[in-house]
Amino acid sequence: MVSSEEIKAKLQELTTGLCYQSEADYPLEVVQFEVALPDILTEKELVALTGNAAKRPVEVTDVASFFRHVTTLNNETPLVDNTAKQIVILQAFCEQHLQNTKVYRIGSRILTALLLGKSSNGLLLGLQTTIVQT
Q1: What InterPro entries does this protein's entry cite (predicted)?
Q2: The CATH number of the domain where 16 resides is what?
């Protein structure tokens, strides 16, 4: 069983120099929340964890959908550039070592995105970034 600290360290290694591509590229940052929460977070819990204003739209999606535009061309043909390869490795690591992994997209034009899953001891670990959509 891999510890939360080992998962966090590996996530930091895998995200070094890696940005999430949207209309503006922002780094993927490792986050850890020292709380045990249910499998899917409510809007109230997200606000408490992130400090985002309440009443912003929240969309919940899966990890593959979150990274699809970076790893495939037109959601069909796999990309083979270095960023795509790094994302595929990162995605596989998250799916293997975090349980009940979900992506929470908070906001509408400038979004906060959280990829969160539970470690073996029940803590929330994952990634956070900013996405710009116009």
Answers
A1: NucleaseA_inhib-like, NucleaseA_inhib-like_sf
A2: 3.40.1460.10
